[in-house]
């Protein structure tokens, strides 16, 4: 099973991306949704994974930046 993390900040851009993206992913992809607005202690984790803006999906070490909701710096 493939594991992925979807980081977002809860803004309308992020929520829309989450709904669209999760509906498109294969059922074999296990996605952990991380709301950085509710879990600010995980901003450093996202940054270490290579996330520079949210929404972003991290799969097997690859960061896919989707649209632009907020810079990671804005979440610190």
Radius of gyration: 11 Å
Shape: globular
- How many separate structural domains? 1
What is the total tally of β strands?
A: 4
* Strand order, largest beta sheet: 2-1-3-4
Describe this structure as you would to a colleague:
By secondary structure, this protein is an alpha+beta fold. It has a single domain (2-67), classed as Glutaredoxin, CATH 3.40.30.10. The protein contains two helices and four strands. It has helices at residues 12-24, 43-48; strands spanning 2-8, 29-35, 53-59, 62-71. The model has no long low-confidence stretch (mean pLDDT 93).
Short descriptors:
76 residues; four-stranded mixed beta sheet; globular; 4 strands; Glutaredoxin; alpha+beta
SSE diagram, text form:
Blueprint: E1 2-8, H1 12-24, E2 29-35, H2 43-48, E3 53-59, E4 62-71
Parallel strand pairs: 1-2
Antiparallel strand pairs: 1-3, 3-4
Structure summarized in a few sentences:
Helices cover 25% and strands 41% of the residues. It has helices at 12-24, 43-48; strands at residues 2-8, 29-35, 53-59, 62-71.
């Amino acid at each position: 099973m493939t594991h992925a993390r979807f980081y977002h900040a809860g803004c309308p851009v992020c929520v829309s991306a989450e709904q669209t993206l999760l509906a498109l992913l294969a059922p074999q992809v296990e996605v952990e949704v991380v709301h950085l607005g509710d879990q600010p202690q995980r901003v450093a984790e996202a940054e270490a994974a290579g996330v520079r803006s949210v929404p972003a999906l991290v799969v097997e070490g690859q960061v896919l930046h989707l649209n632009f909701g907020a810079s990671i710096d804005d979440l610190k």
